[in-house]
Design brief:
Number of helices: 6
Distance between the termini: 31 Å
Structural class: alpha+beta
Helix content: 40-55%
Number of strands: 4
Low-confidence stretches: 2-23
Shape: globular
Number of domains: 1
Strand content: 25-35%
């Protein structure tokens, strides 16, 4: 089941529209604000607010806040209950952006969440996908 959910989430990233609005000077602060607010919403169990930061491609795959949050809790537990969040570099990628986020899970394991985001027609920046990989623990 986890592989199916991860596969669906990865497919969503591939289904992004080709065209987007031009990059804005404040992309880095907008990306950090969107991701940080979504992480805060997960932490406070505010599923509707967490869902509001997901781009339309993600919302089509997970058509309600409850379904979306359930998927994140099962497939991305480090994101669902992120600790020690530090933002890394933001890079342009295709029609959008990629933001690296260094975080730890509830057991203290380090992770790198690589978010993709895209500017929406209303000017907001929404999360279009997230890929996780284990980070390097200090002293490991």
């Amino acid at each position: 089941m986890r592989r199916v959910l991860l596969g669906l989430f990865a497919l969503a990233a591939l289904a992004l529209p080709v065209a987007s609005l031009p990059a804005l000077a404040d992309d880095a602060s907008d990306a950090r604000a969107a991701i940080g607010a979504q992480l805060d919403a997960f932490r406070t169990d505010d599923g509707a607010r967490a869902y509001s930061y997901a781009a339309p491609n993600i919302q089509r795959l997970f058509p309600s806040p409850d379904i979306f949050v359930g998927m994140v809790a099962k497939a991305y537990p480090a994101v669902h209950r992120a600790r020690n969040v530090t933002f890394g570099p933001l890079k342009p990628e295709g029609a959008g952006l990629r933001q690296e986020v260094f975080l730890s899970d509830s057991d203290g394991q380090s992770w790198i969440a690589s978010y993709t985001l895209e500017r929406q027609p209303d000017g907001s920046l929404k999360i279009t996908g997230c890929q996780m990989r284990k980070g390097t623990d200090i002293g490991a």
